Amino acid sequence: MMSQALAPETTPSHDPPAAAASKRGTLKLFALALVVVVLAELIGNVAIPVGHGKIILLPLLWALLMGGALGLAAGRLPAPLRVTAPLQHQAAAILQPVLLLFIAKLGLMVGGSLPKILASGWALAFQEFGHFFGTMVFGLPVALLLGIKREAIGATFSVGREPSLAIIGERYGMASPEGRGVLAEYLTGTVFGAVFIAVLAGLVASLGIFNPLALAMGAGVGSGSMMAAASGAIAAQQTPEMAKDVATFAAASNLITTTIGTYFTLFLSLPFTVWAYGVLEPILGRGRGRTEPAAAPVAGLPEEAPALGFGALAAAWLAAAAFGLIGNALTYGTRPDGAVLGGAAIIVGVVVAGWGLYRLTGRRLPAVVWTSLIGMALTYPGLPFAAEVAALTGKINFLALATPILAFAGLSIAKDVPAFRQLGWRIVVVSFMANAGTFLGATLIAQFWMHPPV
User: d(Cα 281, Cα 436) in Å, to the nearest integer?
Assistant: First the structure.
């Protein structure tokens, strides 16, 4: 998702009416996000029993669902509540920068826990193979059994974020079957990904089969919003100390996935999926020997979100941090006193520094990497002021920062629904299986290495 936020900045408009309208739209978007966050935090955690397990619906999921409902019902709502298509694109532009607040918070948590993370040894290293091959292992056989052809390659070689779109677009073209498949995965993940992975992660965690840290590593799927949703659902069922470890291990896994993901999918996952398709399609495929009619192209390719200048970025960071402090007070009972405000200022400062390094280095590494590294450095044991920084930022619960992020995600997803409706139900099922595969595959491998058989 990060590529939308990392587009070059455009020259600000000098048309006063247009600029005023854009400013009003931004203020309206912030106001709606604030209402959504407050309502979501007031609803709080809701547990739904499912057999021997349970599904935990967190405030971040309520925020995502309420934001999406506002966008989907825009035509039937009064003007003050109407989230028009331009506002949805603006929400998408805001989503990516504010995600850095969550990444900064996790980086600050990871720094103090680096010795514990390094002690996990091979579990953290090898679980990445589950992330990158789990999508194919779980998704491709189902796709072939459902009669899907080469669309299955694009839908199952990765979780289908922006780098995957670029890889498939360059190699096959977005009008190809592979292009339609990766677009289906992208749209399914955008519209339903966070909800699906949170429900799945919460249900699996409630069964008590896996080590919570193995589940945390599985949550680092390479998408910030999906990682936030999955790790939140897992952490909600742990003790406070274990919940912190869940967040740190999920962040470490997500950082590895984000850093090496493009190269891994390009040179390993995609070639392996193409090979597996050639082997499995004659065995599992339906309708072999018949020529399928060409599928109609899917309209509504993901558009670039409008670029934000630094002033708009700063406003988004400050607003999202303020919304997070509201959730921190409502759900976790931590009043925004001087220490809490100091912790929030440090988090925002880490984001600004990370964004600055990202720009100064010519965008060679994603902003999430710089932000994570700075946060980790500030709290690494033994460094000056590490304990003080950890104490201040530790007063802000990481889930409180996730809620405003998912609120903006919800306000942005309605723009993708028209294209999503053109996709057949089979490709959606396959996309869900691929998302489940990346989580379960990494979890299984991490569990094996943490508890190898005797």
Answer: 21
